[in-house]
Amino acid sequence: MQTFIVTGGAGFIGANFVRYALAQTDARLVIVDKLTYAGNLASLAAELKDARVQFLQADIADKEAMAAVFRDHQPTGVVNFAAESHVDRSIDDPSPFIETNISGTFVLLEAARKHIAKLSAEAQRAFRFLHVSTDEVYGSLGETGLFSETTPYAPNSPYSASKASADHLVRAWHETFGLPTVVTNCSNNYGPLQFPEKLIPLMLLNAMDGKKLPIYGDGGNIRDWLYVEDHCAGILLALQHGRPGEKYNIGGDNERTNLQIVDRICAEVERVLPAAENPALQAQGKTSYQDLKVFVADRPGHDRRYAIDATKIRTELGWQPAHDFESGLAKTIRWYFENRQWCATVLAGKYERERLGIGAS
């Protein structure tokens, strides 16, 4: 039976991957998570009851703790989701991003390198270190073009710079030490269990509560949106069948401006909770969720456009997304409506939906 260490497994994408991997494989999963503001055991309530799952609260930058994890569980692979991931927070304070995303990745790579040195040649060949990264490492696109696996790195935020640094470390550990690594770079994820600081859950929760819907700049920044379960399917394929030393871009082929996203959220929330029946809007004399939109000052260094060419993972590994943006967003909004207690639990004492990313003090 395979055993995978899943770092950051209590976070948004990590928790969705745990759920997906349990359904699709018979592997044992050792979840390692520091449980920062964005990681919560409430996201793993059902999965932690599975006998194949073990949870360990630990920091991936803790050398002794990671050595113990590898020693005690003898993994056949690692999936590294652990990261500080919100661009706005990296503007306010870059230091946690350097510590977790760069130093933490280094510690994991070294732990994995020392672990496989003790394995048989066959076990070494089967081992995989899969590092989950982002399209933001490539910088900002113009009006045309797509990010491919050979696009030069040009990160523009502290967050993307820290992820780019981690990607380079992973590549170097393969090239120098022969560690069997795979890197995936994804576009913007959305779906269940996303901490409500990110655009889609923040906007839909604000809409439900009759709060303002703040849109950065002119709302024209473009992102490629990927439903989280489709991303998890791509990660599992890359883990099982990806070639060591390779990287795979995973994108949804769903480019939308931020303004289009907010407009679509307003329309979907209207279907589930008509504005005319929402006391929070009635109290303000508003008749439409569109009335909640406000344009605010843009964040520093806001990349204009991202878009991914996912041809490589489609052709080499047979990956295909199962959701278009409309169906994925509808499922996401229904999930948040049905899981308001989860939202209250993960937000309690951590975040009150205030503006972030104004700049370091």
Q: H/E element string? A: EHEEHEHHHEHEEHEEHEEHHEHHH
Q: How would you sum up the global shape?
A: globular
Strand content: 15-25%
Spatial strand sequence of the major β-sheet: 3-2-1-4-5-6-10
Q: What is the radius of gyration?
A: 20 Å
Please give the share of residues in helix: 40-55%
Give the total of beta strands: 12
CATH fold topology of the domain at 3-195 and 225-253 and 305-325 and 340-347: Rossmann fold
Q: What name goes with the CATH superfamily of the domain at 3-195 and 225-253 and 305-325 and 340-347? A: NAD(P)-binding Rossmann-like Domain
CATH class of the domain at 3-195 and 225-253 and 305-325 and 340-347: Alpha Beta
Sheet having the most strands: 7 strands, parallel
Helix count?
A: 13
What's the mean pLDDT score? 96
Structural class call reads alpha/beta
Give your account of this protein's structure.
This protein has 361 residues and is α/β, with parallel strands linked by helices. The chain is built from 13 helices and twelve strands. The protein has helices spanning 12-24, 63-73, 87-92, 95-116, 121-126, 158-177, 199-208, 228-241, 258-272, 279-282, 311-317, 325-338, 340-347, and strands at 3-7, 28-33, 53-57, 77-80, 128-134, 181-186, 188-190, 213-216, 222-227, 246-250, 255-257, 293-296. The strands form three sheets. It has a seven-stranded parallel sheet, with helices on both faces. α1 (12-24) links the parallel β1 and β2 (28-33). α2 (63-73) packs parallel to α4 (95-116), α7 packs across α9 and α9 packs across α12 (325-338). It is globular. The mean pLDDT is 96.
